[in-house]
Specification:
The protein contains twelve helices and ten strands. The chain has a seven-stranded antiparallel sheet, with helices on one face. Strands 8-10-9 form a three-stranded mixed sheet. The chain is rod-shaped, with a radius of gyration of 34 Å. Its cofactor is Zn(2+).
Length: 365
């Protein structure tokens, strides 16, 4: 005849070895006493944790905050009922809301922080490599998507300025800059009737110059410096790198915070409002512009004076929309000094008549 089931017996694992012990338990409001071969321990009520509590109420797996990894398995409705009677608050501690061991949490948090640090340490190299592998046709398509998202922020973006003599002046300026830049890929430089002082380069080679920047410029050489700078972003594929970086960060965020990642194209379009490529990329584009103007003998004085004037307006609190172009660029004073020091040319890029035509490229109502 089978021996009657002893409700005081349970199974215990100390969490340090693979051994499983048959033990007897003494359940009381103060906690649970556990006794068996090579086992003698008391788990106080305050540290008891519910590890697993099946819905059928026929088993209960417990742990304790002071005994890392140890487990006590109680089987049978009668034994579970005894626990419920002696320790009524214990079963209210659901497995998904039990107290976490702070040591485990600290280790896990440290591991996540280390992985995040490694991710961001190697991210620039990873981004540059991945961006270089993306076909220009794909880059162009992504650039068009970014342009569509960007255009939602402004009225008139769909209306390109093409007054004939002004367009001829712009085309001549771009031809000279492209010759000095030695860019193999094509570039599409356009002026749009937006009053903000800004210029934007999109992945794939599209560059938009806002009419507000042309109107605030005091010479064609100032505009030429900006155009050359934006073509530097095109040549170094800074826009594509920004998209890849945002996609990588978005993917990481989706792992640790599902739902935090948004639409990359729309986010990139919004980021371009502040020319948010990063300051290293902006310095790189500045150096590209200076080298380009030097090759065609055009003075960088206009480019330098543009940033000097922006700095003066900023210091006087008159920046307004002028400062949109400088939002995440290097400090204007630092930038102007570097540009002026590296310039070697002294020629103008447009004649007086051509400059007047460019200023009038967007007909005024």
């Amino acid at each position: 005849m089978e021996a009657p089931w002893n409700r005081s017996r349970a199974t215990f694992s100390d969490g340090r070895t693979a051994a499983i012990h048959d033990v007897e338990v003494d359940i009381a409001p103060e906690g649970i006493g556990i006794e068996g071969d090579d086992v003698s321990v008391h788990w106080g009520e305050a540290g008891l944790e519910v590890v697993d509590a099946p819905a059928n109420a026929k088993a209960l797996r417990l742990g304790h905050a002071d005994h890392d990894g140890a487990r006590l398995l109680l089987e049978g409705e009668a034994l579970v009922a005894e626990v419920r009677e002696a320790l009524p608050g214990l079963l209210a501690r659901r497995p998904d809301s039990r107290r976490y061991d702070l040591k485990k949490l600290g280790v896990w948090g440290g591991a996540v922080a280390a992985l995040a640090a490694l991710f961001f340490l190697f991210l620039p190299a990873i981004v540059s490599g991945v961006a270089a592998l993306i076909p220009q046709s794909v880059e162009k398509r992504l650039g068009d998507q970014a342009l569509a998202a960007f255009s939602q922020f402004f009225d008139g973006m769909e209306n390109e300025c093409r007054e004939r003599e002004g367009q001829q002046a712009l085309d001549w300026m771009v031809v000279q800059i492209m010759d000095g830049a030695r860019i193999e890929r094509g570039a599409d430089v356009r002026v749009v009737p937006v009053d903000m002082v800004n210029a934007v380069a999109f992945p794939g080679g599209r560059v938009l110059i806002f009419d507000g920047l042309i109107q605030q410029a005091e010479s064609a050489e100032e505009v030429a410096g900006v155009v050359a700078h934006e073509l530097g972003h095109v040549e170094y594929r800074h826009g594509m790198e920004r998209m890849v970086r945002d996609s990588a960060i978005s993917a990481v965020l989706s792992v640790f915070a599902p739902g935090a990642a948004g639409d990359i194209g729309s986010e990139f379009g919004g980021a371009l409002l502040t020319q948010s490529y990063g300051r290293d990329a902006e310095r790189e584009a500045d150096a590209f512009a200076v080298e380009t103007l030097n090759r065609i003998g055009v003075t960088t004085g206009g480019m330098a004076s543009f940033f000097e004037r922006m700095a003066q307006k900023h210091d006087a609190g008159q920046g307004g929309s002028l400062m949109q172009y400088l939002a995440s660029h290097p400090a204007p004073t630092e930038r102007a000094g570097t540009i002026a020091a590296r310039g070697t040319g002294d020629e103008r890029i447009l004649s007086d008549a051509e400059w007047r035509a460019l200023k009038a490229i967007c007909p005024k109502d």
